Amino acid sequence: MIAQFAEERIMDKPLLVSHVKKRYKNKIAVDDISFSTNPFECVALLGANGAGKTSTLKMIHGANTISSGKIEVMGFDVKKDLSTAKKNVGIVSQEDLLDLSLNIYENLIAHGLCYGIKKAVLKSRTEELLKFVDLYDVKFKEIGELSGGMRRRLILARALLNQPKLIILDEPTTGLDIQSRHLIWDKLLELKKQGVSILLTSHYMDEVENLADRILIVVAGKIIAEGTKDTLLKQYRKKTLEEVFLELTTKVKGEIDV
């Protein structure tokens, strides 16, 4: 298995966000949000640009400070024990930050060494992950030769090197063709079946529908609705998730603007 859970922590919530706020000077980007994720589950944060999604993700993996509230990853407090919390997180960000001077294989090895993974273990894990994301046969290709889909799969493999319990995906398939998107979705669904907890942001409704077990709709830093696709459709009497999203975000935005 790509993800291996320690038995003593398997019952912990992979992610627990409690009354979290993020302030930038006079602006509140994240406003008292609370949610959690479970093993074998994908939770999607759905919101327009500027809704507070990326600020939330950055606080979870320590790229942003938490103004108030508490975030725990596998029971470890991000404020008090960030280094341990980060060991349980894999990140697929919008920026790939791949080293153009290294090939596919070397990029993974270099990243794994930063985690302090022993060389023998790292080599085995790298080859396993390259097979998992269907890049093993091209593992010596230079980064500049890769298609967008191949780069995104490499970033996913990189995010899995530390065998994380939680994977954060920030717009993971933006700009990819439909075949590449579906290939990445298939890999993410495999990870979920193995017990990995996934936190996803995406502007693609079909992506959210394919991957997410629960959906949190975020407007102006607040979670204004939460549920499965079916419960949201039933609650708001709509035929599509897009219709639910448009109704809620337009209504709340109008109230805020007033």
Describe the protein's architecture and organization.
Helix 3 crosses helix 4 (119-132). This protein is 38% helix and 23% strand. It has helices at residues 53-60, 82-86, 104-114, 119-132, 148-159, 178-193, 205-211, 229-236, 241-257; strands at residues 15-24, 27-37, 42-46, 68-73, 76-77, 89-92, 166-170, 197-201, 214-219, 222-227. The chain has a six-stranded mixed beta sheet, with helices on both faces. Strands 2-1-4-5 form a four-stranded antiparallel beta sheet. The chain has two domains: 7-88 and 166-257, P-loop containing nucleotide triphosphate hydrolases (Rossmann fold, 3-Layer(aba) Sandwich), CATH 3.40.50; 101-163. The chain has 258 residues and is of the alpha/beta class. The model is unreliable at 3-11 and 254-258 (pLDDT under 50). The protein contains nine helices and ten strands. It comes from Lactococcus allomyrinae. GO terms for molecular function: ATP binding; ATP hydrolysis activity. This is ABC transporter ATP-binding protein. InterPro entries: AAA+_ATPase, ABC_transporter-like_ATP-bd, ABC_transporter-like_CS, ABC_transporter_ATP-binding, P-loop_NTPase. Pfam families: ABC_tran (PF00005).
